[in-house]
Amino acid sequence: MAEQQTTDLDHFSTHASELILSRCKDLSITLAKFPRTALGHLPTPLEPMDRLSEKLGGPRLWVKRDDCTGLSSGGNKTRKLEFLMADAVQQGADTIITQGATQSNHARQTAAAAAKLGMACHILLEDRTGSDAINYTLNGNVLLDRLHGATVSKRTGGTDMQQEMAQMADALRASGKKPYVIPGGGSNPIGALGYVNCARELVEQAANSGLKIDALVHATGSSGTQAGLVAGLAALKSEIHLLGIGVRAPQEKQETMVFDLATRTADLMADGTRIERDQVRANCDYVGPGYGLPTDGMIKAVKLLAETEGLLFDPVYSGKGLDGLIDQIKQGYFDGMDNVVFLHTGGSAALFGYDQTFDLPGYTH
Q1: Do residues 136 and 129 touch, judged by C-beta distance below 8 A?
Q2: What are the φ/ψ torsions at residue 152 (nearest 5 degrees)?
Q3: What is the pLDDT of residue 39?
Q4: Which of 71, 85, 235, 304 would be 273's cystine partner, CB 3.0–4.6 Å?
Q5: Beta pairing class for 179-181 and 215-220
Q6: Which residues are known catalytic residues?
Q7: Which H/E stretch holds residue 226?
Q8: CB under 8 Å to 144, separation ≥6 — which residues?
């Protein structure tokens, strides 16, 4: 299998590579119009997963390592925060407000970004699982939120979190602060620019190495990652088949959210990019009983990747995305494709909030 890395790539022609790289350069120029603060270790690696590929017997699998972005153990939100925090600085903000679920990877990376830029940070965490396990409520991402100096407050499930953040922002303004509100997941057009840039980065990496990517698969939740990828691939006129694996909403709602945000992101880019509805695909069959609630498929997928590739995925987001990828390979979704990339969105810190989920053996003698 090791020889496959250098001998079995589906190579681009020289002309095709030059055209792709030219479009990547044009997209870089478009993105350069927007303020951006360097927070991540970019570009992130693109690596083969040959042991997993051999085990599953489908297309050759690759992983885009956005768990290696570097900010507070890494993750996909760092790319979004590069643009969001730059906008906050430009607006003169001194305080960041954001929200997420209890074990929010976004909240952890936002707290770290605020610390790095010398801003105060207030995090509102919504209880979406009903769990009161001590590790879930205080360990993992929650521990890191507090370690980065953020104030953390809890809200019951179903709370209007946008309204809660707006009320907090009003109170802070009344006390003389200058708050900047970041939506859950950093999912607005400014944040989605981070994944427009990721699409460019990935396509450029593939072209430079002669790799023809047939499909890109990732977990999709608050919609910013997928919307950015949709807009970025559309701007590049890429033929890569993009598939989101939903972790929260039903398919129609998820796809509608992504399409709306991708369209608004393209409008913000103002480079003539058009988003078509059929460019948005989400399979939401792997959510299970709800957001943040474990599934058997997720548990098996996380264990499988840990044991075959030495990679750690999170139980809320990337783990369910992996479950979808693996099952869809078995169902033949990717038949006829040679190279499929899974976007690793990070979040392994959340594993420490789900320690009982995996029922692992203790010490042996």
Answers
A1: yes
A2: -125, 130
A3: 98
A4: 235
A5: unpaired
A6: 104
A7: helix 224-235
A8: 72, 73, 108, 111, 112, 349
| Closest CA relative to residue 138, chosen from 111, 103, 108 | 103
Tokens (6 digits) for 326: 């693996």
Residue type, 51: R
What is the side-by-side strand order in the sheet with 120-126? 151-155, 120-126, 95-101, 179-181
For residue 138, give every residue at least 6 positions away whose Cβ sits within 8 Å of its Cβ, in sequence order, or none. none
d(CA 304, CA 243): 21
- Closest by CA position to 323, among listed 346, 303, 349: 303
Distances, alpha carbon 157 to alpha carbons 125, 137, 154, in Å: 9, 14, 10
Radius of gyration of the chain (CA): 20
Query: What is the rounded CA–CA span in Å between residue 108 and residue 102?
Result: 10
3-state secondary structure 285-349: CCCCCCCCCCCHHHHHHHHHHHHHCCCCCCCCCHHHHHHHHHHHHHHCCCCCCCEEEEEECCCHH
Does residue 2 have a pLDDT over 70? Answer: no
**Paired tokens of 211:** 């790799």
Torsion of CA 291, 296, 300, 302, to 10 degrees: 20
Q: Where are the beta strands (DSSP E) in the chain?
A: 46-48, 60-65, 95-101, 120-126, 151-155, 179-181, 215-220, 241-246, 282-283, 339-344
Instruction: Let me know if 239 is exposed, middle or buried by CB neighbors in 10 A (0-12, 13-18, 19+).
Output: exposed
- C-alpha to C-alpha distances, 25 to 19, 48, 155, 222, 324, nearest whole angstrom: 10, 26, 44, 28, 33
* 146: Cα separation from own chain's centroid: 22
The whole model's pTM is what? 0.95
Asked if 338 and 10 touch (Cβ cutoff 8 Å), the reply is: yes
pLDDT for residue 11:
53
